[in-house]
């Protein structure tokens, strides 16, 4: 701060010994102790610890018996992990595309000077207030093959109708997707709407003068202008996808069979159920790597780009 | 990050600026029908689960077995709600969701108070009393918000064991405080940074110290941001499942974990109406907060958007 230091400190400083810099601004430092502890011990320390112990053959308890990359070899040789990764890839790609599409479309609709805008916004956003457990259980019931949508459509006379994602290993991830998008797209809509509101009215006027149609204006002019908003949304969606856990546990429990397992669930199962800590650590380190892969380009675009002007 | 802040401001300012874009011409033009059609159809998808949950929870089991999930109840009964609250079983324990509810309340209140107290002081120190290295720690904190929780779960188990809080409600409170810190600190730091500097300087000239300025000047003028923080934390902590399942034991399970155990229990006959009543009960707290808080909730999630 530009404010002059305490006179008391200054007078002591003029004495024989300079006071340690440590005591300058002491209250602020004391107040920041919880933050410093969290940052260093939990975030840096905890993550490093996990990464280091992923190279050991810890089973029930962590042990310092280093075995190199054994855990990773075993991890990538385990069917369950491969299935988890494939599931997450399917879910992730679909979720990203659909969430962006729905989020943007809804935001664009809401931005067209419509009536009842706030009512619609409230409806689209309320699932975001609910937990993944509640989301998962609600959709588990709606998709229930005996009593849910499938049964209702059949009772309307379409006897051969089949939509039972929770019993069918081939489409179970889409059952999760319906629920995940229901829960999360409201947030993206909100962010997109804020982005759309930030666009100058003159752009619209100019597009009109040039005779460009509404939809074409969105695609050719507005979306490129909203690049930062899209990038932020993508990062949000991506980091949410990697964490996908509660929804799976509540809605499918990973089944039928292993058909809806996801990496986050794999980690928890191996750490706390199967008592195979080393595997859990290796799997969670892989999750960390995937986050790093997503974050570095983003940080580069977000912060690196700005410095260049 | 600056990006997200701007977004937050823009989201909050939505109502001030008002809708933009060209004015629709006729009320029943083809465009309008398409527009409202899309919104209504999508709106139905969003409302469907809530509607189905409510009507299912008001039906008796015989009616559910007959089968139309979308049909309104022929005979309204509140028995499933009573049963979900007081008698639903997890394994052999049949005390209903009420236990989980009170556990969640006991976790929620200290977690919200502690996390907001710590983060607001942090944000205050980071914005107005910067010291050497403070920005470094803050950057680590924000990056930490993106690290998957799975990488830190086990080290925290060890830490909690060391201080004797593993399985204890207070251990979970501590975990919530730690993981709430990045986003809340960011929220408060940005807020305090927007306070006019003259105010702060005047207080310094008058001889006010760190805590005096915090309690007598900053705290009284930052009520709105505290409300945003409370909304963010109450919904976040209430909805938590992962930490609850790992850092507590069955007697102290929060509501979400207990709900999952009740609904997904393999024993006994499935009572879908009780399950839906239990699900609604668990969702009630965040829903009430959402509908009551309106714009502030949006501001909270726009800030919380960084957390992802």
From TrEMBL, chain A:
UniProt membrane topology term: Multi-pass membrane protein
Coiled coil (residue ranges): none
Cell location: Cell membrane
Entry annotated with the keyword Transport: yes
GO biological process, one term: transmembrane transport
ABC transmembrane type-1 domain ranges (all copies): 85-300
Record family assignment: Belongs to the binding-protein-dependent transport system permease family.
Protein name: Carbohydrate ABC transporter membrane protein 1, CUT1 family
Species, as recorded: Yoonia litorea
From TrEMBL, chain B:
Gene3D superfamilies: MetI-like
GO cellular component, one term: plasma membrane
Domain ABC transmembrane type-1 residue range list: 101-293
InterPro entries named among the record's database cross-references: MetI-like, MetI-like_sf
Keywords: Membrane, Transmembrane, Transmembrane helix, Transport
Domain of life: Bacteria
Cellular localization per UniProt: Cell membrane
Residues passing through the membrane, by range: 33-54, 107-129, 136-157, 169-192, 213-238, 274-292
Predominant location category: membrane
Entry keyword Cytoplasm: no
Membrane protein topology class: Multi-pass membrane protein
GO biological process: transmembrane transport
PANTHER family: ABC TRANSPORTER PERMEASE PROTEIN, GLUCOSE IMPORT SYSTEM PERMEASE PROTEIN GLCU
Family from the record: Belongs to the binding-protein-dependent transport system permease family.
The protein, known as: Carbohydrate ABC transporter membrane protein 2, CUT1 family
Organism of derivation: Yoonia litorea
């Amino acid at each position: 701060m530009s404010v002059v230091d305490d006179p008391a400190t200054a007078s002591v400083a003029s004495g024989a010994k300079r006071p340690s810099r440590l005591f300058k601004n002491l209250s602020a430092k004391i107040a920041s102790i919880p933050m410093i502890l969290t940052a260093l011990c939990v975030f840096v320390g905890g993550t490093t610890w996990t990464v280091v112990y992923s190279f050991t053959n810890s089973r029930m308890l962590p042990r310092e018996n280093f075995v190199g990359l054994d855990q990773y070899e075993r991890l990538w040789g385990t069917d369950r992990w491969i299935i988890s990764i494939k599931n997450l890839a399917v879910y992730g790609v679909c979720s990203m595309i659909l969430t962006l599409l729905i989020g943007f479309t809804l935001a664009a609709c809401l931005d067209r000077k419509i009536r009842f805008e706030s009512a619609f916004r409230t409806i689209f956003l309320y699932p975001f207030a609910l937990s993944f457990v509640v989301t998962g259980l609600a959709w588990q019931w709606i998709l229930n093959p005996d009593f849910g949508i499938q049964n209702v459509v059949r009772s309307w006379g379409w006897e051969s109708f089949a939509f039972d994602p929770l019993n069918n290993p081939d489409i179970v991830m889409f059952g999760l997707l319906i629920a995940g998008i229901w829960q999360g797209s409201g947030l993206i809509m909100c962010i997109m709407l804020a982005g759309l509101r930030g666009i100058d009215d003159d752009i619209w006027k100019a597009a009109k003068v040039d005779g460009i149609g509404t939809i074409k204006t969105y695609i050719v002019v507005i979306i490129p202008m909203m690049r930062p908003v899209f990038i932020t949304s993508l990062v949000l969606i991506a980091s949410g996808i990697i964490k996908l856990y509660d929804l799976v546990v509540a809605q499918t429990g990973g089944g039928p069979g292993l058909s809806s397992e996801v990496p986050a669930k794999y980690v928890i199962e191996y750490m706390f159920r199967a008592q195979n800590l080393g595997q859990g650590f290796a799997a969670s380190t892989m999750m960390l790597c995937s986050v790093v892969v997503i974050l570095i380009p983003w940080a580069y675009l977000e912060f690196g780009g700005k410095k260049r002007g | 990050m600056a990006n997200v802040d701007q977004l937050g401001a823009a989201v909050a300012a939505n109502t001030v600026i008002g809708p933009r874009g060209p004015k629709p011409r006729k009320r029943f033009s083809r465009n309008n029908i398409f527009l409202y059609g899309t919104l209504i159809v999508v709106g139905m998808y969003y409302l469907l689960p809530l509607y189905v949950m409510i009507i299912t929870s008001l039906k008796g089991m015989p009616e559910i077995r007959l089968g139309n999930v979308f049909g309104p109840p022929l005979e309204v009964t509140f028995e499933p709600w009573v049963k979900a609250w007081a008698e639903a079983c997890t394994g052999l324990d049949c005390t209903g969701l009420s236990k989980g509810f009170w556990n969640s309340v006991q976790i929620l209140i200290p977690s919200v108070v502690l996390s907001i107290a710590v983060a607001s002081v942090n944000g205050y120190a980071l914005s107005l009393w910067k010291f050497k290295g403070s920005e470094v720690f803050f950057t680590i904190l924000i990056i930490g918000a993106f690290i998957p929780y799975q990488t830190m779960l086990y080290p925290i188990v060890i830490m909690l064991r060391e201080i004797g809080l593993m399985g204890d409600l207070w251990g979970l409170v501590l975990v919530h405080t730690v993981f709430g810190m990045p986003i809340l600190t960011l929220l408060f730091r940005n807020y305090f940074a927007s306070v006019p500097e003259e105010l702060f300087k005047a207080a310094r000239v008058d001889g006010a110290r760190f805590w005096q300025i915090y309690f007598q000047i900053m705290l009284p003028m930052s009520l709105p941001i505290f409300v945003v923080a409370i909304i963010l934390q109450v919904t976040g902590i209430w909805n938590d499942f992962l930490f609850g399942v790992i850092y507590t034991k069955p007697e102290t399970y929060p509501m979400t974990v207990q709900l999952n155990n009740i609904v997904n229990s393999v024993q006994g006959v499935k009572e879908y109406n009780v399950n839906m009543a239990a699900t609604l009960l668990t969702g009630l707290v965040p829903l009430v907060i959402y509908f009551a808080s309106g714009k502030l909730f949006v501001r909270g999630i726009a800030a919380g958007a960084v957390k992802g």
